[in-house]
Amino acid sequence: MSDQGLQASVAMMRERGLGPEAIKVFEHYYAQLQDGAQGTIPEDSIEPLGEVQTLREVKVSDEEAREALSRTAVIKLNGGLGTGMGMTGAKSALEVKDGLTFLDIIALQVLALRQRWGVELPLVLMNSFRTSEESLKILSKYADLPVEGLPLDFIQNAEPKLRPDDLMPVEWPADPELEWCPPGHGDVYVSLVTSGVLDALLEKGIRYAFLSNSDNLGATCDPDVAAWMVEHGLPYVAEVCKRTKSDRKGGHLAVRRSDGRIVLRDTAQVAEGDERHFRDIKRHSTFNANNVWIDLQVLRERMTAKEGVLGLPIIVNRKNVDPADTTSPEVIQMESAMGTAIEVFEGSEAILVPRTRFRPVKTTNDLLVIRSDFFSLDEEYHVVAAVDGPEPFVDLDSAYRFVPGFEKRFPKGVPSMRDCTSLRVIGDPVFGRNVRCVGDVLIDGYRRVLDDAVLGELPVPATVPVGTPGDVRTVDEHLKAILATLEPSPTEWTRLTDALGLVVARDVRAKVDLPHFDNSSMDGYAVRADSLAGAGDAPVRLRIVGEVAAGDDPSFSVGPGEAARIMTGAPMPEGADAVIAVEDTDGAAEGEVECRVPVEPGRYVRPRGEDVASGSVVVSAGEVVGARTIALLAACGYAEVEVHRRPHVVVLSTGAELVEPGKPLQPGQIHDSNSSMLWAAAVGAGASAEIRAAVGDSDEELIRALDEVVGEADVVITSGGVSMGAYDVVKNALRSEGIEFVKVAMQPGKPQGFGLLTGPNGRRVPLFALPGNPVSSFVSFEVFVRPALRRLMRLNPEKRRLRPATLISGVESYGGRRQFGRAVVSRSAEGTLVAVPVAGQGSHFVADLAKANALFVVPEDVTELVAGEVVDVLVLDREA
Ligand SMILES: Nc1nc2c(c(=O)[nH]1)N[C@H]1C(S)=C(S)[C@@H](COP(=O)(O)OP(=O)(O)OC[C@H]3O[C@@H](n4cnc5c(N)ncnc54)[C@H](O)[C@@H]3O)O[C@H]1N2
Ligand code: MOO
User: Fold this and answer.
1) Distance CA 653, CA 769 (A)
2) Tell me, what's the ipTM?
3) Ranges for the MoaB/Mog domain (predicted)?
């Protein structure tokens, strides 16, 4: 790691025509990177932001508003490519509402403000080298938009992507443009200077700028904020919004202890161990909306004083050189964030604005809601909600994730969402015209949604088992409800040896032929078959011209009357078309070899491509990775395969009586056996798992523990606390988190809780609240959690088939509940299965549970079975 990387980068930047200011800033960042800067802001160095001005309470006269707006420009950060939504061009060119693109709406919003206030209000885009042309073409429709003396856009600088090992600029001859990246939106300040736009604005008497992302349609140039800023002479104002539980991830503002300045802490700047504080929405109660107001005069002075380097904190981003190809080499992109400039200006302030000013479209879920009739555009092109109440929660399946897939499945427009609280789509149906969603909608397994369909609430379970009260669900209903909420695990490239048991996400094509080259399948001699034509009558002697072992690359060729010694797996030399096995010769090592049999062309030759032809599909999506698949992929040269990720299960037992195994017990205490049992069962089902320390019987302790795990777990399993007891903590605490508690008509395992926790970034994490009795907990895992884990992994949820077995002794059952008894199953002399129920069928008998190797099922409508009757058994391990 030397200055070579820096020199090479600078040379590239010069050659590209980048100015000295951009290079200077790059050098500044590069030095930070070389020093190993992490760019973190530790929790103990900051205080929460505290009370700030609320926009609603700002009182401004029309005259003040007009005056402030007349000296303001709108700058939109427009470098985004929308790769996350499967787009390749400028994201803001996406049609977002009423046939208008983001850019159309931005232009119309500005024109409406100009007209209403009689101001000039210039609009300038900061484009990247990839977005400029397409964006300007859209804006060219608005003839009145350009303002004299100002361009409609300026181009953000570019910098080389760096190799992580030696910080040299990466080379990518396949597409040299991919060797470059924009240096993050923090570059706006530098680019404003280098493009001359800053001075041009000041010259026109424009003193303030409103900066925001072009994909945030809520970010209109609000005259009240402008006037408030002018009135108080503020150099820099950042808009913040109240944080809710689902925005635990975005950056937030805080006050730096050392100098009292406001700073921005983004996700990438959280120090290790501070994640919990970062996510704590009580402590850091607002988030940064990335809507920024800046005094351009102050910016000019700062830039001059600091010789063009504002000194924003660096963000180190790791990506692939070709973002569309996750197997391309890893690179470092040094970036900075616009909002971090808040710390540079003395007297910066934050203002609390309504959520409506933060309406980004980051996913196709957001796109569906924005396009729908839940929102409309008012006469000034503001996006306004057409109905009161919270926005519907939308969760579309992966087929809709990219814009082309989304458009294809909503060819006649998106559904009406005015009366919808949530929409989840599993599968990939095409939606018809005029579809209406009402309440909570779940679509699972549809091929097509018909025109004019009204999609309603989840159907109430229709069947109630015999002899049970109405609030009880059947086992099948509960399992179905669980499976319906689950999405397959995300896919990821995984080392072959870590992918065992996982499901392949995408077809794998061979990039090579197998065998790679014609080679011998025997130890012997490579020959021309016609040299041995007479060997059937009398031995033929051939001259040995060389030797080839596996791994060699023979440079000689074999002519008529010649032979080469060859080993199994060694490449065939030029000229030879067959192999004679050493057993059919005298085995000579040099000189001449005597051959006793003729061979036909191709004998003992394994031709190139015989096994696998380059370009053919060797492993298909949906296949489960096993030893044989691994062999094939490795043979084709793959070190990794794209699979559905192994879900990570966190096990959390509850109960004040629990003590970790190995530690001494006080009176009344017991050892926690469920944690390790559930861990083992999860690992056995193919998940990865970890145990968290058991929590006592306090709501807060449990919520705190869950808060910690929800960022890391794909599935949470709790045990205990779900029945009717006075200390049934899980039930009490989790009801308010949206977990549903039901009685399931089964024994053991009657009380069950299930639901989705909301993790950072709105990620949904399934939580199973299993009963505490050890046998109940185990059976619940087998019946509900195992199929769920398999569904997440894209495996068939029910692998273990029920098999008939003859009961050796009679059993009684409650009736009205499906009983899962424990039994030892073995094979009789006739080859049929026989089941011996274990003695202790109570939910606390761990010894009898350990003895058993199967569960036997007594149906809901049966109360007694006698010896000799046949039951269904679910074999857990191999039969005894
Ligand atoms: N009045 C009623 N009482 C109970 C009912 C009911 O309907 N009405 N249902 C019973 C059924 S059925 C079950 S199953 C259990 C479920 O109990 P909880 O999930 O609330 O679990 P706890 O009360 O915390 O514990 C039950 C039992 O299991 C032991 N336990 C708990 N955790 C562990 C662990 N990690 N390792 C080992 N053992 C554990 C705990 O000490 C209790 O003995 O409720 C019935 N009651
Ligand atoms: O259903 Mo409880 O699970 O009887 O033991």
Assistant:
1) 9
2) 0.94
3) 650-791
Among 213-222, 289-298, 659-668, 717-726, the range scoring the smallest mean pLDDT is 717-726
User: What is the distance in A from the centroid of ligand 2 to the CA of 841?
Assistant: 11
* Ligand 1 site, residue 747, Cβ cutoff 6 A: no
**Distances in whole angstroms, Cα of residue 769 to Cα of each of 651, 657, 733:** 10, 18, 11
For 710-762, what is each residue's pLDDT tens digit? 989 999 999 998 887 666 778 878 887 778 889 999 999 999 999 999 887 77
pLDDT for position 467:
32
Nearest residue (by CA) to ligand 2, atom 2, is 748
- What is the architecture, at CATH level 2, of domain 648-792? 3-Layer(aba) Sandwich (3.40)
pLDDT band at 38 (very low <50, low <70, confident <90, very high): low
Indicate the fold that domain 364-458 takes in CATH.
UDP N-Acetylglucosamine Acyltransferase; domain 1 (2.160.10)
> Looking at residue 317, what is its pLDDT?
83
**Ligand index nearest the alpha carbon of residue 842:** 2
Ligand 2 atom closest to residue 779's alpha carbon, by position in its atom list: 3
* CA 329 to chain centroid: 20
Binding pocket residue ranges, ligand 2, CB within 6 Å: 747-750, 771, 773, 776, 843
> What pLDDT digit, counting tens, does each position of 463-510 carry?
223 333 446 889 989 998 999 899 899 999 999 999 999 999 999 999
d(CA 147, CA 311): 32
The pTM of the full predicted model, rounded to 2 decimals, is 0.55
Q: What is residue 292's three-state secondary structure?
A: strand
CATH code: domain 491-513+612-644 is 3.90.105.10
For atom 23 of ligand 1, which residue has the closest CA?
A: 721
Same fold, 364-458 and 648-792: no
Ligand 2, pocket-test mutation among 723, 773, 820, most atoms within 8 A of CB:
773
Atom 43 (ligand 1) nearest CA: 773
CB 419 within 8 A of CB 400: no
- Cβ neighbors of 54 (< 8 A, separation 6 or more) are 351, 352
Top CATH class of 803-875 equals mainly beta
Best residue among 670, 773, 781 to mutate for probing ligand 1's pocket (most ligand atoms within 8 Å of CB) is 773
User: Which residue in the block uniquely carries the two structure tokens 């808060």?
Assistant: 707
Q: How many CA atoms lie within 13 A of 535 on its CB side?
A: 22
